[in-house]
Amino acid sequence: MKWLTIIKDHIGASVSIGPDDFEYNQLLMQKGGLFSAYQAFGDGLNGIMTELNEVLSA
Fold first, then answer.
1. EcoEI R protein C-terminal domain: from which residue to which, for each copy (predicted)?
2. Which pTM value belongs to this model?
């Protein structure tokens, strides 16, 4: 659940999230970056990012 909170906050500040953000955002990096995000969300990560970008930036 912490991942989703960090991602939501990042989208709120940056309007979107993409794979590169996991390597440049300090909080996302502290959670383990893109590799750890894929471990947590599996193959669904890209779909989750797309859906969150659409819903939270609207």
1. 1-56
2. 0.81
